[in-house]
Amino acid sequence: MDVIGEKPRRQVGLGRRLAALGLALGALLMGDVGAAQAPAPAKPLLKGKIQGGEALVNPVWAEAKDPKNHRYTFRAPSATASPAARKLTAYLPKELTIAALAKSGPGASSGKPVVVTVSGGRTTPVTIVLGEGQSVEFVNADPFSHKLYDVAKVKSGLAPEETIKGGRRKWQPPGVGVYELRDVLSPSVRSWIVVEPRVVAVTTPAPDGTFALRELEPGSYDLQGFFMGKAVGKALAVDVQLVPAEQEAPGALVVGEPKKDADEDK
């Protein structure tokens, strides 16, 4: 009986060994697939702070200060308000854009359209910095229509077409340069699009002047502030490393130099 049953027992043992080998091989293969599908490590976060933002003034506000323009504004004097609080300055989270620029060669900005909200007689952000070939999408959040257009009326520019309440309008600037935008229906709307081929990433500062640039590849960059369609202040060279996950800029990003305003203390 033992001799007769030896062959079946050998077959069962061999089958078990083959099954175990198959399971091991499958686990190994699944492990390779899992490794291939594992998410890439997070890119570093670069933190910094601006300096000189109090020197920046929106030209619309500057024009309103001139009595010859007949803009109706008023300022109530207050003995408790400090001179700094009475000084007209830009609202940096909306009006200042900070861009990381590649040291040389073209940048690698996202191909996704940059969304710009039109509301309350302004655009958010006011200055938009795009990579070459990138588009912008305007979203009308006002309860009335807008007709944005580019002032220079360049070829393939932004024509004054109506964007209804809640409507969207996408536009791709035709090339590198600066495009000033206005609105036929709301003269206070002034916005600028800067097409910069070296741009890699952009952000806007918080009210306290701090900022953060996300998703930067390790490498060397120039940080540059853009205000009302122009590069302002001084570029700040930074070197982004693979680690740590959060890194600090080597100094403050200077975006303006304080100027003595003749009306500052009035």
In whole angstroms, the N-to-C terminal distance is 116 Å
Q: Structural class per helix/strand content?
A: alpha/beta
Total number of helices: 4
| Rg calculated over all Cα atoms | 29 Å
According to CATH, what is the topology of the largest domain?
Immunoglobulin-like
Give the overall shape.
globular
pLDDT under 50 segments (min length 5)? 262-266
Q: How many structural domains can be distinguished in the coordinates?
A: 2
Task: Name the helix and strand elements from N-terminus to C-terminus, one letter apiece.
Answer: HEHHHEEEEEEEEEEEEEEE
State the total count of DSSP E strands. Answer: 16
Q: Which band does the percent of strand residues land in? A: 25-35%
Mean pLDDT equals 82
* Multimerization state: single chain
Main sheet characteristics: 4 strands, mixed
Question: In CATH's first tier, which class of the largest domain applies?
Answer: Mainly Beta
| Assigned CATH superfamily of the largest domain | Cupredoxins -  blue copper proteins
CATH architecture of the largest domain: Sandwich
What does this structure look like?
The chain is α/β, with parallel strands linked by helices. It folds into two domains: 1-38; 45-254, Immunoglobulin-like (Sandwich), CATH 2.60.40. It contains four helices and 16 strands. The longest helix is centred in the first third of the chain and has 36 residues, at 2-37. It starts with a helix and ends in a 12-residue tail after the last strand.
Helix-strand blueprint:
Layout: H1 2-37, E1 45-51, H2 59-64, H3 83-86, H4 92-95, E2 96-102, E3 114-119, E4 122-124, E5 127-130, E6 136-140, E7 148-150, E8 168-171, E9 177-183, E10 190-195, E11 199-203, E12 210-213, E13 219-227, E14 230-240, E15 246-248, E16 253-254
